[in-house]
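Researcher: Quick test of sequence recovery. Tokens follow.
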């Protein structure tokens, strides 16, 4: 169809489980999800996570991983197009989030330069796909004094806002974030990282059972919440900060968890800790929604955490009487919302339109984001 505006969005999140690719039609202000493809990158997960903290030979390891991920991203695009019988010439651009390996946003009293770094070489993607690739979306916002995250709220507003209905979009990846959409025609969207999403639970079940994730929260459901430990978790300074704020695996990681457990010894049941981590995620998300300066009528979940039935049930209970559903009810399956967001951000960049929201990130101004790598 000649009137379609086809874009591809690529996403690999904090959990580093997979590369997600979406094919979207963004013509006429619409957000049509046409096709998807996902491929695991389990063999790269340790390498990715090891680069989240300082270590030996970082530049060489990063350079190799940057190229390898660029190839994997390109392969995901080409596989998606092959399956859908779409020629690369029909796609306007690829929007690639890349794989975050370090995120150190502005911090009061800290005299180091804030920075964020995503890898997955966009030059390689553009070359191997033959499609103009837009990437490196976050660093312009950092340069403008912002957090560089989250960047999805403007897309959430474009795709999900409903006049007269205040909503919250809750994205649960390795880290969780929210977007508050007031629907009043006046207020800008608000949003920030609330704290851990699936990341800590994934790390714990991998350590104890060798499983990549807790399927439907089944293991957590077998345990009991350790309330003194939960209370300690909830005192984490990041949670007490006012937005704009963002975080990542640099804070909420296995080392952080080990430090939290020191005074509790080895007597606790592993499933009880999993239950406590699930409750920690649910409470930090729900508390953030409750802090909205206007009442929220509807909540919509997206990201991998939307598939965790135990977590969804707990969030729903904590948010009552707010109606809780997933973004499937709004037309986009929850696992593909972030991929759609970066396809949309590529469109914004090529059109010379802003991709960030200063009320969300704290940047000094709205700006066009990303770097364009021609085919």
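Model:
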């Amino acid at each position: 169809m000649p009137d379609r505006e086809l874009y591809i969005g690529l996403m690999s999140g904090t959990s580093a489980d997979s590369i997600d690719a979406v094919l979207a039609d963004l013509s006429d202000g619409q957000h049509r999800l046409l096709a998807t493809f996902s491929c695991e990158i389990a063999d790269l997960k340790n390498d990715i996570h090891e680069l989240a903290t300082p270590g030996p030979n970082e530049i060489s390891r990063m350079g190799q991983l940057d190229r390898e991920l660029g190839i994997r991203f390109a392969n995901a695009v080409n596989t998606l197009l092959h399956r859908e019988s779409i020629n690369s010439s029909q796609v306007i651009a690829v929007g690639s989030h890349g794989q975050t390996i370090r995120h150190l946003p502005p911090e009061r009293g800290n005299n180091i330069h804030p920075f964020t770094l995503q890898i997955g070489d966009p030059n390689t993607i553009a070359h191997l796909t033959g499609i103009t690739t837009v990437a490196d979306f976050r660093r312009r916002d950092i340069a403008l004094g912002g957090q560089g995250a989250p960047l999805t709220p403007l897309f959430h507003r474009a795709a999900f806002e409903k006049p007269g209905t205040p909503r919250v979009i809750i994205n649960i990846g390795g880290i969780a974030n929210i977007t508050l959409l007031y629907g009043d025609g006046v207020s800008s969207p608000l949003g920030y990282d609330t704290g851990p999403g699936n990341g800590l639970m994934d790390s714990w079940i991998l350590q104890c059972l060798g499983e990549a994730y807790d399927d439907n929260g089944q293991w957590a459901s077998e345990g009991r919440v350790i309330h003194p430990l939960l209370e300690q978790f909830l005192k984490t300074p990041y949670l007490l900060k006012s937005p704009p704020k963002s975080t990542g695996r640099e804070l909420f990681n296995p080392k952080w968890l080990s430090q939290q457990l020191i005074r509790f010894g080895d007597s606790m049941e592993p499933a009880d800790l999993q239950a406590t981590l699930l409750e920690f995620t649910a409470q930090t998300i729900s508390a953030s929604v409750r802090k909205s300066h206007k009442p929220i009528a509807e909540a919509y979940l997206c990201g991998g955490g939307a598939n965790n039935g135990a977590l969804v049930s707990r969030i729903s209970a904590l948010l009552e009487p707010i109606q809780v559903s997933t973004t499937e009810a709004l037309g986009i399956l929850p696992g593909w919302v972030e991929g759609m967001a970066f396809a949309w951000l590529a469109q914004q960049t090529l059109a010379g339109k802003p991709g960030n929201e200063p009320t969300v990130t704290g940047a000094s101004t709205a700006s066009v984001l990303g770097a364009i790598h021609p085919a």
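The two ends are 22 Å apart (CA to CA).
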